Amino acid sequence: MSDNPLHTSKQMQGIWTSAILSGLFAVVLGVVILAWPAPSVNAAAVLLGVYLVASGVALVFLAFSLPASAGSRFLTFISGVASVALGILAFRHFGQGYAVLLLAIWVGVGFIFRGVSVTASAIAVPEFPGRGWAIFFGVIGIIAGFVVLAYPFDSIETLALVVGACLIILGEVEVGSGVGMRRDVKKAESSVTSADCPVRVAPTTTDKSAALQSQWVRAVGPR
After folding, report:
1. Residue 218 is assigned to a structural domain of this protein
2. Is the residue at 204 inside a domain?
C-alpha cells in the first residue's frame, strides 16, 4: 500500500466504486433471471457465466488495491482467477443431463470463493473501510454458495429461481458494503484534512489590548 495519501485515496475510491457497481450488476442480473419466463440452459449459463467472470475481474482488481497483507491479497487474487475460470466453464455445454448440475456447481463454488476471500481480507485488516459490511457480505456469499451446492436442482427453472434470488440479496448487501466503505473513506479524508490544517485560535481581549498598546507606543514614540 502506498504511503502517498492521494494515491491511497484513489485506491480506496476504486474499491468502493467497484463494490457498488458490482452490487448493482448482481441485482440487475438477478431480476433479469427471475423475470425470464423459462430460461434455457444455454441462456442461464451465459448470464451466470458473465456474472462469474465480472466477479472474478473485480476480485483481481481488489487484490492489487487492497490494503492488506501479501497472504490476503494472494488469496483474493487466486479467488478472482478461479471465478473467471468457473465463468468460462459455465459457457460450455456439457449435455442436457449434466448441464444443470454442473452449472449449479460452478455458481455455488464461485459464491464461496468470493465470500471467503472478502471475509478473510476484512478480518485481516482492522482498518478496512466498511469492515462490518464486508464481513457480512462475505458470510452471505458463503451461505449462498452452500445453498446452491446443496439444493437438489431438478430443472433449470428451479436453479434460475434460487440463483436469481441469491444474486439480488448479494447485490443489495454489496451495494451497502460499498456505501459503508465510501462513508469510512470520507471520514478518514476529513480527519487527515483537519490534521493538516489546524484551526486558528481567535485572539482574546487581552491579546488585542496588548497589540493596540504596542502599536500606540510605536506611533508616538517613548516619552
Report:
1. no
2. no
Report yes or no: 80 and 63 within 8 Å, Cβ to Cβ. Answer: yes
How many whole angstroms from its chain centre is CA 187? 18
C-alpha cell at 196: 493538516
Tell me the pLDDT tens digit for each residue of 48-98.
888 899 889 988 888 887 766 788 888 889 999 999 998 888 877 555 557
Residue 6 is predicted with a pLDDT of 45
CA 56 to CA 60: how far, in whole Å? 6
Cβ proximity of 34 and 161 under 8 Å? yes
> Which candidate, 81, 76, 12, 20, places its Cα nearest to that of 53?
81
- How deeply is 128 buried, as exposed, middle or buried, from its count of CB atoms within 10 A (0-12, 13-18, 19+)? buried
> 111 with 140: CB under 8 angstroms?
no
Alpha-carbon torsion 159, 78, 171, 29, what sign?
Answer: negative
Whether residue 166 is contained in a domain is answered as yes
Domain hosting 162: range is 5-196
Both ends of the chain: CA-CA distance in Å? 66
Q: Give the phi and the psi of residue 174 in degrees, each rounded to 5.
A: -70, -40
186 to 102, 146, 182, 209: CA distances (angstroms) = 43, 35, 6, 42
Q: Distances from the Cα of 73 to the Cαs of 62, 124, 202, in angstroms? A: 8, 10, 48
Number of domains into which the chain is organized: 1
Q: Is residue 215 part of a domain?
A: no
SS3 category, 152: coil
